[in-house]
């Protein structure tokens, strides 16, 4: 029913589906307002202060500002510790002209994740490096290695283990019961499928993810920059989800999921339940929606609606901008905002996206 109503609204020839108008170029747009506007300002000011600053440079500068300022605690060092109390970083950067990209996943002990991703783009023929070997690559390229833990993130993890008995967490189909106990865990066999067709019946607790609060969705920064010449770039940086299973990688460093850009068409940034969202490549789909003639807002709403049809409880945020700077967004499960600054704007503006 939700989908049918939404389609009916799209068919109306009215103001409900037109895009937010472009403020002019150059322009920077990214997920979230509030503390994330430090990134918007850094990227925009880099573009207007020196015409030699490319869109790709601006995205790196903006995301790095968020990493350095630990935007909302969900970007950069000292945030979102995993089950072992370690913070790891994911980042991706993409050139909308060449469609080339560089990314790092599960980066350990190096703070400048977006810049390491840029080095993957600039100095390798690869698209993604991961884990300790991504760290080795970073160190070989002159990045400093150090502890990403802070007193605050260590305390957060300690309290999660001792006071909250490791609740909530991301474990399912294991023993001891993950809704009550900490690990170590042992897999149950066979696990219960999503459809519930296979399950062990000799236990007294649920084998599938129970309807209890999960760790809150992480507030990734995903940014799109448009140079005055019209060239575009996109990037994403995050420290992932709090209390994740060590080794987990979400949507952030995945091209087409955390962000995507094509200078001929437009770009997209995403945030939310990364493990769910990456199954839909939402930013790739959003840019393809623009290619098919949708407005940015229509493109974002379509992507969110696709996810809601399969996962009605998904928390998501999608911001979309076309090559001229017209923009729109949509989200679900929370109030999603995005920030933008362009043309001659003296300050960053925060916009609340459509909620579905």
From TrEMBL:
UniProt keyword Hydrolase present: yes
Site entry (Cleavage), positions: 219-220
Alphabetized InterPro entries for the sequence: Ntn_hydrolases_N, Peptidase_T2
Assigned keywords, A-Z: Autocatalytic cleavage, Hydrolase, Protease, Signal
GO molecular function terms listed in the Swiss-Prot or TrEMBL record: N4-(beta-N-acetylglucosaminyl)-L-asparaginase activity; peptidase activity
Signal peptide boundaries: 1-19
Superkingdom assignment: Eukaryota
PANTHER family: L-ASPARAGINASE, N(4)-(BETA-N-ACETYLGLUCOSAMINYL)-L-ASPARAGINASE
The protein's name in its UniProt record: N-terminal nucleophile aminohydrolase
């Amino acid at each position: 029913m939700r989908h049918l109503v939404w389609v009916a609204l799209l068919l109306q020839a009215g103001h409900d589906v037109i895009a937010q108008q472009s403020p002019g170029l150059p322009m920077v747009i990214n997920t979230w307002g509030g503390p994330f506007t430090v990134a918007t300002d850094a990227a925009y000011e880099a573009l207007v202060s020196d015409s030699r600053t490319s869109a790709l440079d601006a995205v790196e500068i903006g995301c790095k500002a968020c990493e350095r300022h630990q935007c909302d605690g969900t970007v950069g060092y000292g945030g979102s510790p995993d089950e072992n109390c370690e913070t790891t970083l994911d980042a991706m950067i993409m050139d909308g002209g060449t469609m080339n990209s560089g990314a790092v996943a599960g980066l350990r002990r190096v703070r400048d994740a977006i810049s390491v991703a840029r080095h993957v783009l600039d100095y390798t023929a690869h698209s993604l490096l991961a884990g300790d070997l991504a760290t080795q690559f970073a160190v070989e390229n002159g990045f400093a290695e150090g502890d990403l833990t802070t007193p605050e993130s260590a305390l957060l993890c300690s309290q999660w283990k001792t006071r909250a008995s490791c609740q909530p967490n991301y474990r399912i189909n294991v023993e001891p019961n993950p809704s009550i106990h900490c690990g170590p865990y042992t897999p149950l066999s066979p696990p219960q499928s999503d459809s519930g067709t296979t399950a062990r019946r000799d236990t007294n607790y649920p084998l599938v993810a129970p309807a209890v609060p999960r760790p809150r969705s992480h507030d990734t920064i995903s940014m799109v920059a448009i140079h005055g010449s019209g060239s575009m770039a996109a990037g994403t940086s995050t420290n992932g989800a709090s209390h994740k299973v060590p080794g987990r990688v979400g949507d952030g460093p995945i091209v087409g999921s955390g962000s995507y850009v094509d200078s001929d068409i437009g770009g997209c940034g995403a945030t939310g339940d990364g493990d769910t969202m990456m199954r839909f490549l939402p930013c790739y789909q959003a840019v393809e929606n623009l290619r098919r003639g949708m407005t940015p807002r229509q493109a974002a709403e379509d992507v969110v609606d696709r996810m809601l049809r399969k996962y009605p409880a998904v928390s998501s945020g999608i911001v979309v901008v076309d090559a001229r700077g017209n923009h729109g967004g949509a989200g679900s499960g929370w109030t999603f905002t995005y920030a933008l600054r362009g043309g001659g704007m003296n300050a960053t503006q925060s916009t609340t996206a459509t909620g579905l």
